[in-house]
User: Fold these one by one.
Assistant:
Number 1:
Amino acid sequence: MLEFKNISKWFDGPEGKVTALDEVCLSVSPGEFLAVRGPSGCGKTTLLLTAGGLLRPNAGQVSLDGNDPYALSPEKRSQMRARMIGFVFQQFHLIPYLTVQQNILAPSLALPAKGADQRAQELVSRFGLDDRAGHVPAQLSTGQRQRTALARALLNKPKIILVDEPTGNLDEGNADIVFGYLSQYVAEGGCVLLVTHDARAAAHATRTLQMVDQRLIE
Amino acid sequence: MTIWKLVTSEILHRRMNFALGVLSVMVASASFIGSVTLLRIHDLRTGQILEVKQEELAKRMAELKDDTRKAMLKLGFNIVILPKDQNLADWYAEDYASKYMPEDYVHKLANSGIVTVRHFLPSLQQKIEWPERKRKIILVGARGEVPNLHRNPVKPMVQPVPPGTISLGYEIHRSLDMKVGEKVKLMGKEFTIHACHKERGNKDDITAWIYLAEAQELLDKQGLINAILALECICAGMDVLPLIRKEIGAILPGTQVIERGSRALARAEARTKIEKEAQIAIEKEKLGRQHLRAVRERLASILTPVIVTACAVWVALLGFTNVRARREEIGVLRTLGVCRRGILVMFLSKHILVGVLGGVLGFCAGVLAAFYFSTALEGKRIWITGMDLSMAGLLVLSVGGAAALAVIAGWIPTMTAIRQDPADVLREE
């Protein structure tokens, strides 16, 4: 589903070149829950953004469902992202003035589809947010916000979900709920690439890789 | 979920930003509409002032015309057409012509299409010894006016002496103790006294008027006259005589034209002078109003662009503030697959909405402010119903212009938004 071939990414900083990814190779297949663990600043988020078609690598090749997203025009890459990828962030990044249901529907702005409203309603129910559907994020608990973010990632039935520190702001109970949903998604044929520094997260993954000095090791 | 829903939800969420944007556009629009409306009100007021002055002038001129007409009735004609071979020194000495011309001349003149003269009165005058009374008198044979068919017919200024009658000057009837209705004999022919005139203090007091044909018969001058009295009716003042001479000379080459100084002419000239002065006063008023308009227009041409520019800058700053506040939201939407065009539509829709709303409110505020200030500036409140103002056109201009202003002012912030790299936002987490 997702494949990295010798991906390198560096940034030009005030003190010279800063390497974020150094010849990284990985692949994630459907039905796989891959966790990448590593300390802060090791390049985990860069890995995720590169996988999501948001950060063009300086070297190497990314393949998503057999296609190189960076070979596409920005418009087509956006469409591909809307169609194939779901994102879940540590800070949730919900739109503050939209309700739970509207936030879940936000991906339909990029990929309008018939039945999106019904699908959003199903996700609201599935994630136990029925009594919060009309609330804005400021009125939700942290766990409810993360569940909303996860439901949003699932609206367009993506082939892969990229997850960045999903439980960083959650207590153990809520973290388990989130991992439960992700595992269920994988069981239904999806695949998950999760980056985290949390050792507990690895327990829910089918495979775990370590990121050390901008390189991936088994 | 639609872009429109997103835009309206964001507006409700950031009400203050939106309200300030609308207010800015409203101020810009109101300043423009207010300026235009005030200038239109100025024009309208100018029209009203000039109309009133023109009406006053027309009324005054009508009064003066009537005065002149009355004066003419009393004083007679002021142009005399004489035979060309008449010695003017003799004419001035005797006050009547010793040479003659065909009576038909007056018809020729009346049918000629002459435009400078309206009234024609042929006459035959001669100083005679009234044999029955042993008195020297001036005998005038006159008939009714010959109408100028090419001018609008007007009421005759001189009433004819009916055949068989005689009108007597003051000195004659007073010294001979004659009364209206009495029978008198003149050169063997009997006449009934038709009128006894009041004292005029001129040669009229020793003049007797009879019907022209009878005078021609008594003086043995059948078909002849020695003067055509005429009134130049165009009343154009001192420069008109050469024009009349030229015109009459072309029609009647065997004549000469002289002007008879009279109070009527002086009045006509005074009337012309008053009219000219009044016209000059109206022109001065017009120029004064034009000058005032130019000053106001200049002021508006400076103030309005300054206000509009300041408002545009303010809208742009609000736009930047909005983009900055929505940095995370833009990053997330881009991550979710919303393309740059979607972000562009999202921001421009909001700016258009700000512009349209600001334009409508600015139009209302501008028009109301103009009507309010019209009292102070014009001394009179001028309402919309009385204005020659295409309000619908102005509203369209206001809304269109305001929307354009908001879009232009918001263009750079919008471009900043769409160029924002979502990866930068997410990496900052």
Number 2:
Amino acid sequence: MDATKPLRNIAREILSRDDVACLIGYEKGSYGFRVAPCVLKDPDQADRLVFSPLCVHNLTNYLTLENIGPLAQKDGDADKIAIVVKACDSRALAVLMAEKGIDREKVVVIGVCSSGVVDLKKLEKRFPNAVENTEVVRRNGAFSVMYQGETVEVPAEELLSAKCMRCKNRLPVVYDELVGEPDEAPGDEFADVRESEARSVEEKFEKWHSELEKCIRCYACRNICPLCYCSDCALDRLNPQLIRRSVNYQENLLFHMTRAFHLAGRCIDCGECERVCPQDIPLMELNRKLAKDVKELYDYEPGVDPEAKALFATFRPEDPDEGIM
Amino acid sequence: MDTVILHKENLNEFLKSLGDIRLVAPVAENGKTRFEVVEDVDKAVIVLDDYTASPKKVMFPQTETLFSFKNSGAGFDTAAGTHPPVTVVFGIRPCDAKAFTVLDPLFSQDKEDPYYKEKRESTILVGNACTEPTNRCFCPSVGGSPGSTEGLDVLLTDIGDEYHVEIVTDKGKELLKGSETVLLDAPKDKRKAKEEVVGRSLAKIRRQVDLKMMHEILPGVFEHDMWKEMAEKCIGCGICTYNCPTCHCFDIQDEGSTATGRRIRVWDACMYPEFTLHASGENPRPDRSARLRNRMMHKFTYYPTNMGHIGCVGCGRCIELCPVNIDLIEILTRVREVINE
């Protein structure tokens, strides 16, 4: 399915509305396989939009970033923001709405049914050094990759993002407009988490010591995360300075553990933190472990039900004590 | 300049022949290539065909102790940080070596920075010419070359079964004194072989940007809306600055207690709001567009004006690693369009 054309038509209409300030979507990037987030303001710009398996970003992050998001918008006629979301991205919207981080009324949601996005690191390793803009198209069980003037067919599972291989539902949970129809999703049994749980404490300690030691604290994981949206992050504070500025295993551990725990019951498995990490730290392993615990302890999955309250805003007398640290 | 030949199978012998010197080289560790201290040449996996790692931290560590302090009751006793041993950085790319020549005037300008200077003086840079430049590389646009010796003491170029070894400085000459057994005299045609390799590399570099008069053009677009458009997708992380071989801003912090602790300097990034946040709460660079603009202005106007060098060596790491495809080449191309409009 080519979603680009219907997406452009919908976008053109939405951008013509008096109550919509801008539309956040994807456009072709500056080189190779790169696709970039874009903010459109005019119906004439709708033809810049694209949608393909290269649209990896979770754009909902922008709704709460300074100077774009509804939180920063002044009241007026054009006080709504339109946004393109995949199913996983829409779960971030659902959590943001449940937490009152954004107002549902202020967002026009264009849901796109994606059959899975590629893992750019895998793609660029296999097809290195593409300079001209290059396309990737999903055809049933394979990706067609245009590379050096030729079309190469690659079995989907060789390039798919890990999150897409365990996707639970390809229909966005929140939308005003919908592009395409959802495929059947593979489903998630937390097989990866079970595998890491089986390791000994010593093995886990050694692994995370060497992983977290690599962190350079660029905060890309935090800044790309749609659910890390505090305008004043406690970890940036100087007084009290909860985390020291020195970059070493100890402080890095504190940073990542604090962040992971703040995302317990909230992380919707968009995988953005891990995608952007310049040091290839498998951050999703931390988030996934907590997601599994939350599911097992409280039978709760963040973002799947847009009507549900946030996990930390609910209490049931039968809640187990194991979740209390 | 002296030129010698090193057979590839003698590489480890060569590295061992450098003697009792700290060796820092790009090693594969945990799926990532990083410049690290190599204790045992035979055991380490030295990766010479990877372009990801930058050795900036050898001269300018991310976290550096300036001194430690202890309250003795009668006052503070201070102790200097550690002194670096003589170090060889092996396998550094020409762009990353050039980056140190960009940083040199900054750290010696008004007052010599002893921490940088000490490491700079005790470090010998042995380069590895680029044979497979990537799609992010654009060093020729900023006056570099895949085979440039600028900033290097020795440059190795892979010319097939052997390395063409150029001894650029006296420091380099001194370093190779003990390696005579593995270094062979270079016949004249080897020079040509090197030039051919560099020529092939240059042909592979396809991204470029026109920087003619850029330092004068940029101030003319300071107030233009283009910065807002370009920065809308910026998430304000530190990837571009922390992976840049020429970015050099740092913060100074005291860590510990009033009884004992240390004063450190640690990398800082101009893309963070906190970077320019005043104690009053005022922030002169209040949003991401002001920060992105400053980063460009700093590299292409302020730095060349004040230090005589463009603050960019064309390594393209900021382009490759940016999570949202903010592309320095695209920005500078847009600047020229705006001026011509």
